[in-house]
Amino acid sequence: MMKQKTRQNKNKISFSADLQQKKEKENAKKREISISPRIIKLMPFIYGALFCIISWIFLTYSNGDYLYAVQERSLFLDTSQFFEERTSVPGGFLEWVGCFLTQLFYYPWLGALVLVLLWGIIIALSFRAFKIPAKCAVLTIIPPALLLCSVVDLGYWMYYIKLPGYWFTGTVGFTVTVLATAGYTLLKTKTAAREAVLLLWTCLAYPLFGWYALLATVYMLIIDLTEKDLDTSRKAVRSVVAILSIILVPIASYYLLYSGTRMADMWKAVFPIFESSRVISTSLSLPFVFMALLPAIYLALSRLLQTKGGCSPICGKSGTLRFAVAQLAVIAVAVAVVRGGWYDNYNFHSEHRMYKLADEQKWEDVLVEMAANPGTPTRQMVMCKNIALMKVGRCGNEMFRYSNEGEPPYVFDSLRVKMVETAAPMIYYNYGRCNFCYRWCIENSVEYGFNVNGLKYLIRSSILSGEYKVAEKYINMLKHTTFHKEWAEHFEQFVRNPKLIAQNEEFKLILPLRKFKDVLDGDEGLCEMYLLNYFSNSQNPEPMFQEQTLVYALVSKDIDRFWKRFFQYATLHIKEPMPIHYQEAAFLYGNLEKTVDISKMPFDRDRILGRFANFQRASQMYAREGMSVEQMGEAMRPEFGDTFWWFYFFCKGVKSY
């Protein structure tokens, strides 16, 4: 009896435990997020569409100024010579396609649209090529996210990258890679055609696509090695064919087609390498490395991805909360990759906006952009601002309204940015130094290749120098572009009829600065320092030129030179009111050195006499409080930062580059 009761109690306990487990399972099911099979099938389209839309908005509205600058620093010509030059290196056809598509950034929305459509194709093809289940669709956005990062992470490397069409070569190359891999999966597993395709693909595609053709061969090999139904001997044969193709095809191409390329570079043709004469940066190549590795990992895990549970926890059971969390985690990683790589430095983007406005002769808009800067601008921005003030004739009244300190460009590695490689042609041209403009256009073209921006300033400087045949040569080049033909035809009229030069509004503001012998001496690669020394040491009765000598005498803080330029300015503008900054300098220097009697000069009572008294009181008060010069400068900036006095005492050590 006791044993029977004990057995019954155990059965009751067991039955109770079963009920408890059943209830827990039912509660777990209730907590599950129910995702229907139809939604799972739509996931590739959902993720692809969302990624493309968000990327397009991001590129167009947050990087539009940068994309426009990119096409200005690139070049595509619809000539056979240009095609032959591009295809003279392994992967040259891909470079040619990249240059063609990069020019579409003339309209940033258009270039960005083509870019994201290609990313959409990559996402769509990835399921077939890399055997990714629909419920793991989120994985396919990571390679395009890396490509997006590679577009927006360059910063000032955009001036130094030597791969033509860089902004599209990665995307087009990877699209071809994924397309070839997807096509390879359509072949029957055990057919001998696969060996032939491996060899034929590598031989034919390598000259066109370089490194990306070899990458596709690697993917094809991994597909074969992960096939369940393929016997070991056939896997070994395909491995030998693929490996020998990857090794021997570049070697054969070197001896037969591309002997001008270094042998060591044959296996990395069209792979982005970031190096200049001064530095090598490996971090910018990482998106391409990870992009290449991820599909290989997908293929290696293809068996796991195709199991019922999928690649837990990312694929997991599609009805669990864990599944949703894992999907969001992958999206968060993609967002972090793009956000972490995005070069969103304010000055970098503002430089592009100011440069474009200056190129279009919109000088008032240049000043508006400069005034909107929330921090310290770069020296290039300061130079552009000074040019704008010269053009509108307000240097003497507004020069110190804007920041004149300036700082070097922000870089995330050891890259050394030089103004002669970013903006010197534009700066020299607007100051009438056409020989220097021409020189740096040619030097930069020799180092980094011709681009639209360089051709424009070669044309302008040649016209003003009277080198009409030279200008015509570059005009003919620009007429073979897609979006700059009208610009070239507009400037062609000055070559055909030089008398029109003096009537042109743009040239009118430069010709007065050219009434001297335009020699080509040395600037030592320092554009701003050369102009500072040139103008502050020059004398010329031409009013526009003479005022610049006075402006640069102020910048150099040279008192003797200032007085000479000041009295010459007063003589040339005897019936005009003296600009406020020149009054500020005269009043300060007259009180500092007493070498010039300023007692009879008609200084503005409120803006000079009264304000200088306030300036002195404030500086004495802060000095009594024990502030350093730097602290005093920051404390007095809100009230007196727009005066020459503040610039003279507190703006020290201008960091030109």
Give structural attributes.
657 residues; 31 helices; elongated; mainly alpha; two-stranded antiparallel ribbon
What low-confidence regions span 5 or more consecutive residues with pLDDT below 50?
Answer: 28-33
Residue share in helix: 55-70%
Structural class: mainly alpha
Strand tally is 2
Oligomer: single chain
Q: Roughly how many Å is the radius of gyration?
A: 33 Å
Q: With helices defined by DSSP (H or I, 4 residues minimum), what is the helix count?
A: 31
**Strand order of the biggest β-sheet:** 1-2
Which whole number gives the mean pLDDT? 88
Shape: elongated
Question: Ends: how far apart?
Answer: 101 Å
Taking the sheet with the most strands, its summary is:
2 strands, antiparallel
| Strand composition percent | under 5%
Word description of this protein:
The chain is mainly α and 657 residues long. Strands 1-2 form a two-stranded antiparallel ribbon. Strand 1 and strand 2 form a beta hairpin.
Give a nutshell description of this structure.
By secondary structure, this protein is mostly helical.
SSE order and pairing:
Blueprint: H1 2-31, H2 37-62, H3 64-72, H4 80-86, H5 92-102, H6 108-130, H7 142-152, H8 166-184, H9 193-209, H10 211-225, H11 232-256, E1 274-275, E2 280-281, H12 286-300, H13 302-305, H14 321-341, H15 346-359, H16 363-371, H17 379-392, H18 395-398, H19 424-430, H20 434-448, H21 452-464, H22 468-478, H23 485-496, H24 505-508, H25 527-536, H26 543-556, H27 559-572, H28 580-593, H29 605-624, H30 629-640, H31 644-650
